[in-house]
Amino acid sequence: MRLRAAYLLLASLIATLPLAATAGSGLVSLTERDDIFGWEAVGKVMVGEASYCTGALIAPDLVLTAAHCVYDDEGNRHAVAEFTFRAGLRGDHFISESGVAAVAAHANYQPTKALDAENIRHDVALLRLATPIPSATASPFALARSDASDQRVSVVSFGRGRDTSLSWQRDCGVLAARDGWMAFDCNVTFGSSGAPVFLRENGRPRILSLISGGGQYEGRRISYGMDLPEVVDRLKADLRRAGTTAMAPAPATVKRLRVGQDRSGTSAKFARP
Is the Cα torsion angle 94, 44, 132, 41 positive or negative in sign? Predict the structure, then answer.
């Protein structure tokens, strides 16, 4: 019932704003080395060997992803040692890989709380890599600073059924934006949590938001994200203050991610009402 109530709240918020009429376009699978040129900094955030989200470099040693990716279903934090980031993954090949030295999730994110506007606003985490990935290998993305309203955006993500290579949706829309959260008509699914939503500024893709979760609203695919600049600035400060203890290791009894399990048994993180 909490999920139902949260979804109705989000739906009511969306209903107060005009929605774009144009549906998002199809996905392009980035299976060849040349296909991922320029997208190398988007990668897979692994938790153990089976569970994953999508993440993106915003500095050689910083990966941006969703906060709910660093917790299990019971709200316990995963041990830092469980995380691995693989940049530019295609099948069994990746451009670069690094373990994680520290994790900071927004203090106002509540992992056991239902999907609602407040949690979406704070569903952001930063991973500090143990080994920075050189910019010449995977050039980090800057954050967008433009107003999100009525913008056309794109999403690069992994997802259930397409988890061996990146998928790029070249064009989808911002359906609603206010109070620190936004909604899109982009094609995302389990495993797309933490995927960067790109806006082009001066010809360059910059990260406008991250995918937090999604579902259906009046027969339309809806996904949700958040404003980033202030949230990310706070997480960077948290990492600087706390050093390698930004997130303490979770107890040894912590379980692996179990939100959304595909038929192959790979657990891909995603939140939906």
Answer: positive
